[in-house]
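Bit of a strange request maybe. I'm writing a small parser for structure token strings and I need a real example to test against, not something I typed by hand. Could someone generate the tokens for this chain?
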Amino acid sequence: MRIAYYRVSTGDQSVEAQRQALGGDFDREFQDVGVSGGVMAADRPAFGKLLEQIRKGDTLYVYAVDRLGRDALDVQGTVRRLIDAGVTVDIHGLGQLGRGVGEIILAVLAQVADMERQKIRERTQAGRDAARASLAATGKTHRGKESLGRPMAKDGAVVAAWRKANSASIKATARQFGLSDATVKRYCAANV
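Reply from user aminoacidic:
Good idea to test on real output. This should exercise your parser:
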């Protein structure tokens, strides 16, 4: 049986590019959408089902090693488990992996995927640090936002002032501004 596995990290990405690159015409397809490569392969919903259903003699097609995961030990263990079960693992552009040289190539590529995951973390942290420093220095992040995280739904000071001026309850204030009770509480606590 010819089986394909696709994975994308966020819900706004599509597996279509991977499907087209692999050429389609598979007996079964499994896809994890919005699942990080840092999640162990067996813990992903679709890959877990794939492991339950794949059998000796089947061939698993994957677009790239990093689609299997970004943890080097997990990727290597997963591929070894499949090979030991009599499954052929075919990585696009690499071909079929087997014992010996195939395992060495996989180990190197899995380590590169793991290193890329670490680099992503470092770049993300560097961006957060730059945003915090800029926010402290100028009142805006390095990207021009007025706060870290999601933009505020309303100006907290305006919400708190309206509530005070109208002697309104949290619920009434929330209705007035179209906010949740928790958001109104947070705005009012910050503007006491």
